[in-house]
């Protein structure tokens, strides 16, 4: 089956065509991603109103390009999928409304995809991963460990009690004058920095609940930066490296606890640990989790970095998975700013939870 996927929940406008065969194997035929980084850079973060307008301006063209690159015409599609949330509501409305218009005019089924579920299912597009698996979802807005038991069936094992990891990277970058988006900038600086120069805290280390905390670490970096000001280039590199090392240690420790919790609650081991979301692009975090995999014997699955950050292929794939299971949505489906994967978890649907 062939599915068009549309992603407009944040600052990437993207459309993709993905194929899924009867064995559940996926293939990306096209994945056009236009980032609005330049539009938002001057403000040091995403401005929702600017993002929504930018999506309106380019989305039609991005969809045409995705069809062209895949060499697929509208009539060959089996369904239209769009991210219906969670995200910046203006952008979500643009993508979902476009998908509804296409579904209606073409007479094709519509699938309203949860953006977080799309991140969560991406490892099933790139690798053969069976349910249940342990998911570390780490992005700009979310940091969670989840048991993925099946399509639409998630149990949240842990979450951040303050900031998301991507948010901490972005705020650290801003504080050090590295611009937006912060993750790749901090990682680049960290590569040639001294990770042992500053002994930043490892929040929640050893705690029995697989939760995360970033705000204390962020404050520690800020205090050190203020103490050293004005910062030399080497100070910035060392601050980034020491910050990133603390994040890696925390992620590995928390994920180890999450794995234990998974085994206790599910009574079985996950088929794999998969990582998803923009932060999963970070090489130091990937290496840390590889070590955890070697230590625990758990298979680690990490999609290529370009599929970890927001993209249309993950939406198309989640749409294809749902369509294959016979799940579609009516044209009256609503866009959602908040849309937790595990609605039963405490505080579910609040920012970052
Ligand atoms: P959400 O998926 O929670 O709605 P989002 O869509 O904005 O949020 P993504 O696009 O999935 O998030 O990820 C973007 C985040 O990932 C940003 O915070 C960015 O700094 C971070 N990020 C991207 N690349 C890296 C990297 N190499 N290292 C660390 N963080 C990174
Ligand atoms: Mg983004
Ligand atoms: Fe995302």
From TrEMBL:
GO biological process: tRNA threonylcarbamoyladenosine modification
PROSITE patterns xrefs: GLYCOPROTEASE
Pfam families reported in the protein's UniProt record: TsaD (PF00814)
Cofactor: Fe(2+)
InterPro entries on file: ATPase_NBD, Gcp-like_dom, KAE1/TsaD, Peptidase_M22_CS, TsaD
Keyword Cytoplasm: yes
Keywords assigned: Acyltransferase, Cytoplasm, Iron, Metal-binding, Transferase, tRNA processing
Cellular component terms (Gene Ontology): cytoplasm
Gcp-like domain location: 27-317
Subcellular location(s) of the protein: Cytoplasm
Family named by the database record: Belongs to the KAE1 / TsaD family.
Protein name: tRNA N6-adenosine threonylcarbamoyltransferase
Lineage: Bacteria, Pseudomonadati, Pseudomonadota, Alphaproteobacteria, Hyphomicrobiales
Encoding gene (name): tsaD
């Amino acid at each position: 089956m062939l599915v068009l996927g549309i992603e407009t929940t944040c600052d990437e406008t993207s459309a993709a065509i993905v194929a899924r065969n009867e064995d559940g194997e996926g293939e990306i035929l096209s994945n056009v991603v236009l980032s609005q980084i330049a539009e938002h850079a001057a403000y040091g973060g995403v401005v929702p109103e600017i993002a929504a307008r930018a999506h309106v301006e380019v989305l039609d063209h991005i969809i045409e390009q995705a069809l062209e690159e895949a060499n697929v015409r509208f009539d060959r599609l089996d369904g239209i999928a769009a991210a219906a949330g969670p995200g910046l509501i203006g952008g979500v409305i643009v993508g979902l409304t476009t998908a509804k218009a296409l579904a209606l005019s073409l007479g094709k089924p519509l699938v309203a995809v949860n953006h977080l579920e799309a991140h969560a299912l991406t490892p099933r597009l790139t690798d053969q991963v069976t349910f249940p698996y342990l998911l570390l979802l780490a992005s700009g807005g979310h940091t969670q460990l989840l048991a993925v038991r099946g399509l639409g069936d998630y149990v949240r094992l842990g979450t951040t009690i303050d900031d998301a990891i991507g948010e901490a990277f972005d705020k650290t970058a801003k504080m050090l004058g590295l611009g937006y988006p912060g993750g790749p900038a901090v990682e680049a600086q960290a590569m040639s920095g001294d990770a042992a120069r500053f002994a930043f805290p490892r929040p929640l280390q050893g705690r029995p609940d697989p939760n995360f905390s970033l705000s204390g670490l962020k404050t520690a970096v800020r205090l050190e930066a203020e103490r050293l000001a004005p910062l030399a280039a080497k100070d910035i590199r060392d601050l980034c490296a020491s910050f990133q090392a603390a994040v890696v240690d925390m992620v590995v420790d928390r994920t180890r606890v999450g794995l234990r919790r998974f085994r206790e609650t599910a009574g079985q081991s996950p088929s794999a640990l998969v990582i998803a979301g923009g932060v999963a692009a970070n090489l130091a975090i990937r290496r840390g989790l590889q070590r955890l995999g070697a230590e625990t014997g758990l298979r680690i699955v990490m999609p290529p970095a370009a599929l970890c950050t927001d993209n249309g292929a993950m939406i198309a794939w989640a749409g294809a998975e749902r369509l294959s299971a016979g799940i579609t949505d009516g044209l009256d489906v609503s866009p959602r700013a908040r849309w937790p994967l595990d609605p039963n978890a405490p505080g579910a649907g609040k920012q970052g939870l």
